[in-house]
Amino acid sequence: MSAAWFPDPNDPTRLRYWDGERWTEHTAPLPAAAPAATPPAAAPGILAPPPMSAQADLESERAGGRRAGLAQLVGVVLVVAYDALALLMLRDLVPWMRDSLRLIFDAAESGSSAPPPLPEMPRGLEVTQGFTQLLWLALIVVRILFAIWVYRAALLARRAGLPATHSPGWTVAGFFVPVISLWFPYQGLRDLFPPGNPARRTARLWFTAYLAHLVLGTVGVGIAFVALPAGAVVVALGTVAGVAQMLLGRAVIKQSLEAHAQLVGSA
């Protein structure tokens, strides 16, 4: 029996979600136009005809998925390049900042009112900073393309009747709004799949890599100001997590398209 919403066998006035193996705890009221009577015994297992917009929603998700999937591959290169340039920048920036702060503290202790002359900024540091900012902007574009696909996929899932924690709009906002970005993205990806679907595990793995990249990158930069080699190791671990995030993002896209094609009865 395929996963879908069916009249609740215990309450014909409500719908209950069948995950393909068992009845779940998710229920919903019958639509106003839907009959309240329980269908014949042979009916369960047959998906209700999808709404007229379902095929268009699926095509929209596929188009967004192709762009987002390609962006994830580009993102692999961008993550490696960005983190490598960040380490190169820190290699020159950290000693310069230490020397500058030392001069400032020494001048303060000596009671001098005039600001001390700071050491000259290392050559090439501004160029490295410029390239790093460009790579950061490119990674933002990768995230935007992924979020656009998530919105389209969440819209189809919502219209197909899958249980959703957040609206499609709030799901996408969770990728960019501080604080809620620590859990909204996972809930949004999880809800693209029916309860009990094995693809939800891929969503968890994606979110684990997402958080690991965010945390290790931030912590690694902080450690680099105290001990550059140790910071570089932590940043490198974050890079591995970032690459995994991009590859798992492609897997989520593929699995979502397969699940949603089945939901709307399309190959």
Automatic annotation (TrEMBL):
<feature type="transmembrane region" description="Helical">
    <location>
        <begin position="134"/>
        <end position="155"/>
    </location>
</feature>
<dbReference type="InterPro" id="IPR025565">
    <property type="entry name" value="DUF4328"/>
</dbReference>
<feature type="transmembrane region" description="Helical">
    <location>
        <begin position="167"/>
        <end position="184"/>
    </location>
</feature>
<feature type="transmembrane region" description="Helical">
    <location>
        <begin position="233"/>
        <end position="253"/>
    </location>
</feature>
<feature type="domain" description="DUF2510">
    <location>
        <begin position="3"/>
        <end position="36"/>
    </location>
</feature>
<dbReference type="Pfam" id="PF14219">
    <property type="entry name" value="DUF4328"/>
</dbReference>
<keyword id="KW-0812">Transmembrane</keyword>
<protein>
    <submittedName>
        <fullName>DUF2510 domain-containing protein</fullName>
    </submittedName>
</protein>
<feature type="compositionally biased region" description="Pro residues">
    <location>
        <begin position="37"/>
        <end position="52"/>
    </location>
</feature>
<dbReference type="InterPro" id="IPR018929">
    <property type="entry name" value="DUF2510"/>
</dbReference>
<keyword id="KW-0472">Membrane</keyword>
<feature type="transmembrane region" description="Helical">
    <location>
        <begin position="205"/>
        <end position="227"/>
    </location>
</feature>
<dbReference type="Pfam" id="PF10708">
    <property type="entry name" value="DUF2510"/>
</dbReference>
<keyword id="KW-1133">Transmembrane helix</keyword>
<feature type="region of interest" description="Disordered">
    <location>
        <begin position="31"/>
        <end position="60"/>
    </location>
</feature>
<feature type="domain" description="DUF4328">
    <location>
        <begin position="129"/>
        <end position="253"/>
    </location>
</feature>
<feature type="transmembrane region" description="Helical">
    <location>
        <begin position="70"/>
        <end position="90"/>
    </location>
</feature>
